[in-house]
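Folds abound. A case:
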Amino acid sequence: MSRVRLADVTPPIALGPLDGRYRAAVAALVDHLSEAALNRERVHVEVEWLIHLTAHGVVPGAPSLTPEDEAYLRGVVETFGPDEVAELAEIERTTVHDVKAVEYFLKRRLAAAPEGSALHLVGELVHFACTSEDVNNLSYALMVRGAVRDVWLPAASGLVDEVAALAHEHAEVPMLALTHGQPATPTTLGKELAVLAHRLRRQLRRIASDEYLGKINGATGTFGAHVVAVPGADWPVVSRTFVEHLGLTWNPLTTQIESHDWQAELYADVARFNRVLHNLATDVWTYISRGVFIQIPVAGATGSSTMPHKVNPIRFENAEANLELSCALLDTLSATLVTSRLQRDLTDSTTQRNIGPAFGHSLLAIDNVRRGLRALSVDHALLARELDENWEVLGEPVQSAMRAASVAGVTGMENPYERLKELTRGRRLTAGDMRDFIGGLGLPSDVETRLAALTPGSYTGLAAELVAFLDE
């Protein structure tokens, strides 16, 4: 059977879901972590290095650039778009080297500068004393920093703020807890959501404080070519001030490559955030399965091709899968990028091109969780019913009150745990069963009154008050 070759369709069909089915949710990352973004940052680094060398008189004889010259150069970066992407690709087909193509691209722009501009005289300062990794490591640091600060962190912070808002909203809603899947000491729905919001915020603080390192020190990190070409310059100072000018942290000790340890640290933190978010997704999925959360149907949507009643928790299931994919990529990046054979190998080159998908799957999961949370309501009646069906959970406070009474000198309080175990283990109690037991203990009247008034729904301790710690 003859078929149309989908590989030949125009415009090209995406191979992966991030650039196809899910593109709308992750498109903002294209400005930071795509191949075109990498080339734009390479042009940016080359432009700023050229300006840095001339502005500080590093190379004797180099002309000073006017503000108009510098604006022209920075305009090359600002106007970098589809035509420039195509031009660079055309140059690279000849050079068969991506960074060399950037150098030739920028030299073309210098040649096209206004007549009389000093830019016509500084062509040999483009990529001066640089190895490709000098440009690449700085470009990747700028790309990842932009992706995290401008796209991923705002989305992740927005999600956590929404979880925190739900925690405050439901801070006083009592809920039967399940430990090991069995009825346990009641809590509140808000407190349980607050736990997750608190965990996620802690990871966000780590991610927000992570460093982005950079270096520019030559082919093996020795400033060898720099010192031979211009022995009078203080190259470590020139290097440090340039890296810091880009807003990065200077790494003074490297091989040909910047060691990428900062990337491993950042990706481990993002992966940890992912895993906590995965925990939230599975918990919410379980609450939906229990009926604690009711999913609000979307008009026109279909939950099953054959069972019309179904509203599936697909947002949380989609999030789980994408978080697992993101973590797999982030873990691989963290593990492989910290190793480079001797002074240089190229395994990091292709590895780093997968940073975008790693963040893309995480961003897609964040989007799904946010959309899923917004389509939930709470079944208060179910929560109340579950609590009222499990009076045996009051065995804990009763035996604890008996212990305290025994310490205070009240007689008849022997073996409190064992007596409550005999009463409750493997049994369902009614309110009357529990109150009859309490009434027969011989407790001080104030303690008996307090325990007799206790219900599973009121036995939530300080759960509601604990939610306030989210605001600290």
